[in-house]
Design goal:
Shape: elongated
Number of helices: 2
Strand order of the largest sheet: 2-4-7-3
Structural class: alpha+beta
Largest sheet: 4 strands, mixed
Number of domains: 2
Helix content: 40-55%
Strand content: 15-25%
Radius of gyration: 40 Å
């Protein structure tokens, strides 16, 4: 190299400072991400509620199906009790079977003297009686069962109605009388 020559340094372009995106863009991205996170969180919460509800429904249906299978056995137990045959070891087994129904939340209904309700009772006998004022289940042939508000089996009953018809609504004017106008 000569005196007049100066070493030339490799010229590199001057680094340009990277400018952060404008404040509006960062805020916009933050708002979008926040909305996405809230949406995903809400979807997950709804999914968990749906799964919990479905799980409860499956458990309830299984309990009801199991109870339905026990009803014929309960009918036999009640017949044995009515005939005085429910003694000894058979009584212990019967109490355990009835305890299973209690544990499932199943309760029996349908006793003689209950007012007749077609949503709870299945009428298989019908007669009239001066002893009742409203249609009444006077004979219970088979108990009904419910679990909570849901009727699993209606009670099979005989229904008695009052002998005299219910009071007639207000008398209508006779056809030969002119209507008040």
């Amino acid at each position: 190299m000569s005196e007049h020559e100066t070493p030339v340094a490799e010229e590199q372009p001057a680094p340009t400072p990277v400018e952060p995106p404008a404040g509006g863009d960062a805020d916009k991205q933050l708002a979008e991400r926040t909305e996405d996170l809230q949406r995903v969180t809400a979807e997950y919460a709804n999914y968990r509620r749906r799964v919990d509800r479905d799980r409860t429904l499956v458990v309830d249906q299984a309990a009801e199906r199991f109870a339905l299978q026990l009803f014929p056995i309960v009918d036999d137990i009640e017949r044995a009790r009515d005939h005085g045959d429910l003694t000894g070891a058979f009584k212990v087994v019967a109490d355990r079977v009835l305890g299973l129904l209690d544990g499932l939340g199943v309760e029996a209904f349908g006793t003689a003297g209950d007012p007749f309700d077609p949503s709870l009772h299945e009428a298989v006998l019908h007669d009239t009686s001066p002893d009742v004022g409203v249609p009444t289940a006077t004979t219970v042939l088979r108990q009904g069962f419910r679990r909570g508000d849901r009727v699993l089996r209606t009670a099979m009953v005989g229904v008695s109605e009052p002998e005299s018809p219910a009071a007639q609504p207000a008398a209508e004017p006779a056809p030969d009388e002119p209507a008040a106008g």
